[in-house]
């Protein structure tokens, strides 16, 4: 990664991933999910619960704002130093005995992981929760190589059984209620005793997973923080499956985005405090794993071999622009989703991308290209709730406006910032706005146009496309404001003369 590389020279992104086609169908996806009353009820209840949990976790607003500012500065400092920190991380991990691999695209990342597994004759993989592996569609890739890959996080396990992708970055199966999960287990787990008791459901699911842990050849995980100075991979989790994936199999492969690097261990505690409380309202997660090397002589557990795959996939593109770079501050807590009125109503699958909600609207255009994701930045009310709750103070509404601007800019008149730039530009719409600008720049044209509109108000259309799908068409007054003021003044003069 090099922050001096012009954006126009970056390699094309792989917009033909399984998510690109679905993202193009965003409007159809929204219509489908808005018609699903059970889905909307599931999300409404879950979001209300998470909002309340976060609010109770941050009872002291002064402490919250101090912590947000501190973590914003930590992430900004680490991003400024990112190229150097990545090199330092690689050197330190290598000296610790961990093998580091670089992947510019999702295809490269999947090929690297598959080749490592095949070199060890691995056939079974247990996987901890990792949104980056969802980003690369790793499970599908391994299945094509006849490698069994089982999700061990309970939420990920549920969506895997349902042949879906996660609808939330923290709680993958939040779109399903306990009855739906029970029916899913009944279809897929042999000997399942049908119940809607949540604890019983989890226990029966874990029984299947425990057996897989004992026989898996490979464990795959994500990374929450990668510490450059010590070469430490930090994993935050609540179920213990992450620790099992990174401890029981002889081979551990971690995959993460290049933006997850922090400078020192001192940077981790404030970020962890914000992450857990913003995500699930917990003071701290149940497990916090720190991996710095493979199993050492005399140690009784841990993998014999550890690999780390560092993925770009559009992140350097974000990094190259000072404003868009702020997107990389994200610590993947999901708070912006929980407070987003759009996400709450349409759910995660409507977006068609691995990262839904406000954060997905920002990162997906870089990963899939603006042509496939043109509708995403506009799928926002710009109410500002996402920016207000972001723990690292990413100006989400401002970045969404910037992406909207990039999607309609004239192609060829501007430097290329991202793939698909200008794909949302419509010639007719552009011509209408040019005419509008010309009219509003000329007092004479403005006066004539207002006079014409007021006189033709009876024949103006009542259906104005998407605007009137949820709104009443505006009624044009019989006279312009200027005419009414002029008439009122003349009436005052006449009454004064009398």
Account of the protein in words:
With 498 residues, this protein is of the alpha/beta class. Among the domains are: 7-176 and 217-317, Rossmann fold (3-Layer(aba) Sandwich), CATH 3.40.50.10420; 427-460 and 475-497, no CATH class. Helices cover 50% and strands 9% of the residues. It has 23 helices and ten strands. It has helices spanning 18-24, 26-34, 37-57, 61-80, 82-96, 106-119, 131-136, 138-144, 154-161, 178-188, 198-215, 241-247, 268-279, 315-319, 335-338, 341-346, 357-368, 370-373, 385-389, 396-408, 427-441, 443-455, 481-497, and strands at residues 99-103, 124-127, 148-151, 218-221, 225-227, 232-237, 251-257, 261-262, 287-291, 305-311. A six-stranded parallel β-sheet has the order 1-10-7-4-2-3, with helices on both faces. Strands 8-5-6-9 form a four-stranded mixed β-sheet. Helix 17 (357-368) runs parallel beside helix 20 (396-408) and helix 21 crosses helix 22.
The CATH homologous superfamily of the domain at 7-176 and 217-317 is termed: NagB/RpiA/CoA transferase-like
Q: What's the level 1 CATH class of the domain at 7-176 and 217-317?
A: Alpha Beta
Mean pLDDT: 91
- Given as residue ranges, the uncertain stretches (5+ residues, pLDDT < 50) are 1-16
Query: What CATH architecture label of the domain at 7-176 and 217-317 applies?
Result: 3-Layer(aba) Sandwich
Kindly state the number of beta strands: 10
Helix/strand class: alpha/beta
Q: What's the helix count?
A: 23
Q: What is the overall shape?
A: elongated
Helix content: 40-55%
The CATH topology name of the domain at 7-176 and 217-317 reads Rossmann fold
What is the radius of gyration?
Answer: 27 Å
Strand content: 5-15%
Q: Give the neighbour order of strands across the main sheet.
A: 1-10-7-4-2-3
Main sheet? 6 strands, parallel
């Amino acid at each position: 990664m090099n922050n001096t590389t012009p954006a126009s020279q970056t390699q094309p992104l792989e917009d033909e991933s399984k998510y690109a086609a679905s993202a193009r169908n965003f409007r159809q996806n929204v219509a489908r999910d808005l018609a699903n009353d059970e889905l909307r009820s599931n999300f409404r209840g879950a979001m209300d619960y998470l909002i309340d949990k976060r609010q109770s976790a941050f009872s002291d607003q002064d402490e919250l704002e101090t912590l947000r500012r501190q973590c914003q500065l930590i992430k900004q400092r680490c991003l400024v130093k990112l190229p150097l920190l990545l090199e330092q991380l690689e050197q330190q991990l290598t000296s610790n005995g961990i093998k580091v691999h670089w992947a510019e695209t999702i295809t490269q990342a999947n090929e690297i992981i598959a080749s490592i597994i095949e070199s060890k004759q691995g056939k079974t993989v247990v996987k901890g929760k990792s949104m980056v592996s969802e980003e690369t569609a790793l499970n599908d890739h391994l299945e094509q190589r006849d490698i069994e890959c089982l999700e061990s996080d309970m939420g990920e396990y549920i969506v895997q059984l349902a042949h879906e992708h996660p609808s939330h970055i923290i709680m993958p199966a939040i779109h399903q209620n306990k009855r739906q999960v029970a029916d899913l287990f009944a279809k897929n787990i042999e000997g399942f005793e049908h119940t809607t008791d949540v604890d019983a459901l989890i226990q029966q699911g874990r029984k299947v997973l425990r057996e897989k842990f004992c026989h898996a050849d490979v464990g795959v995980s994500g990374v929450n923080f990668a510490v450059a100075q010590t070469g430490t991979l930090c994993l935050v989790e609540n179920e213990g499956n992450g620790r099992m994936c990174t401890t029981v199999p002889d081979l551990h492969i971690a995959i993460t985005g290049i933006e997850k690097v922090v400078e020192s261990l001192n940077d981790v505690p404030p970020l962890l405090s914000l992450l857990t409380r913003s995500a699930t309202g917990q003071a701290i997660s149940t497990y916090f794993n720190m991996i710095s090397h493979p199993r050492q002589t005399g140690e009784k557990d841990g993998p014999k071999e550890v690999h780390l795959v560092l993925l770009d996939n559009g992140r350097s593109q974000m990094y190259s622009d000072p404003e868009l770079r702020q997107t990389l501050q994200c610590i993947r807590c999901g708070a912006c989703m929980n407070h987003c009125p759009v996400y709450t109503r349409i759910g995660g699958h409507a977006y068609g991308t691995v990262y839904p909600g406000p954060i997905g609207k920002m990162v997906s255009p870089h990963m899939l290209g603006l042509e496939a994701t043109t509708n995403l930045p506009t799928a926002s009310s710009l109410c500002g709730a996402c920016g207000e709750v972001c723990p690292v103070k990413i100006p989400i509404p401002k970045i969404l406006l910037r992406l909207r601007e990039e999607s309609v800019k004239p192609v060829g008149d501007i430097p290329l910032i991202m793939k698909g730039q200008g794909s949302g530009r419509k010639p007719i719409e552009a011509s209408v706005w040019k005419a509008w600008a010309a009219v509003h720049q000329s007092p004479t044209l403005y006066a004539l146009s207002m006079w014409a509109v007021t006189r033709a108000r009876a024949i103006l259309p009542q259906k104005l496309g998407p605007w009137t799908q949820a709104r009443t068409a505006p009624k044009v007054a019989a006279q312009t404001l200027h005419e009414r003021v002029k008439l009122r003044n003349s009436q005052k003069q006449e009454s004064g003369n009398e």
